[in-house]
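Lay summary. Proteins are chains of building blocks that fold into shapes, and those shapes determine what they do. In this project we predict the shape from the chain. Here is one chain we studied, written as its sequence of building blocks.
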Amino acid sequence: MTTPDSKQQLSVSQLNRLAKQLLEDCFAQVAVTGEISTLSRPSSGHWYFTLKDQQAQIRCAFFRNRNMRVNFRPEAGQQVIVHGKVSLYEGRGDYQLIVDAMQPAGAGALAAAFEALKEELKAAGWFDADHKKPLPEQIHHLAVITSPTGAALQDIRSVLERRWPMMRLTVLPVLVQGEQAAAQISRAIEQANYLAASGREDFDAVLLTRGGGSLEDLWPFNERNVATAVYHSQLPVISAVGHEVDFSISDFVADVRAATPSAAAELLSPDQMEILSRLNLLRGRLTAAQQRRLRQQQETLASLLKRIRSPQSRLREQAQRLDELELRLQRQQKLLLRQKQQTLHAARQRLVLLNPRQTLKRQRLELQQLGKSLRRSIEQRLQQQQRQLEHCQRQLRALGPEQTLSRGYAIVLNPETGKAVRNSEELTMGHAVDARFAAGRAMLRVEQIEGSVPGDRPHQGD
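And here is the predicted shape, written in a compact code that computers can read:
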């Protein structure tokens, strides 16, 4: 950058512009440690503050698009480290630091220790959901571990007074920052569990809380002994440390984490206005239901009253009904008696018809008739067979060999087989044959054999 000649005259704005360029070129990026003083936060969202040490101070501007990245709430008197560039506000000629980033002083080492302990406890399972104890449905007595003079306790009481004033609070006072704070907090958690286990107090849960602050201020809640006391607590532990953006080791180990002390009070208490509204709604429904029920009962009663009649009238009707039933019974008895008499008469008639004497007499007659019919059938059959025999005899005489023999013929029989000889080929020279005549028979010897005469056929019956 070129500087003007010493004899050249500059306007104030020109001088400030040159000074701004010079500062921004020479101090483009610096890191400065100091204490915040006179911090202001206008509605624009920008932060303006003074950073000082024991001997000097500098004005700082931290614009909204940059300060949105800060994960803590800076307060006056807090030691911080800011990163930015040196510049000059031309309008007033004010020398200032334009801040790009901010972190609590010493936060680097603390943040590393925080992450190391967090990873160790996470690996050990201290953050697992299955270790978390559920909160009671209704908390009647709450042990609050916090500073008795802190704003966190006042916020909790204010919320409970508005939402559920009947909840009992027992404050176990502790330091919430400093070297002695972690030991006091862990002892208070153990004390709350001891009082509940021994029956001296009826605590339902433990609320571990404090307001916001720097990482150093919140560090007691990142100590191992506090995490150990929270992990081994038999009472459910709610951790509400700092602001919504703040996270501590106790938040991860606790059974429930609340963003702020007020949010914890909201979480642990029912809204009495909501409950009253619900009760009023239920009361209205109950009243309406009772009224409907009463109307229904009144209508039922009126209907029953209309149906009620004089006992004398009811007795007369019953007497009349009894007479009618008596007459019906008599008619039924007479009718039944007639039916039984008719059944008895029919049975007697069937008995007469089924008398064994009559049956035997009838069967004897039938047997006699069958005997006569059998004799007639036998006689007819014998006569028929006799006629048939005589006919066969006539046919036998007409067709038998005796008729043929009586005309001078003879039958030649083989003496060995007794069969008629039908062909001369059946004869053997010199053998004997049996000759049968109409009267008598003779044994003949074969002297000569001639062939059979063509056309000759034996007679039937030969």
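What the prediction tells us: Residues 356-399 form the longest helix (44 residues).
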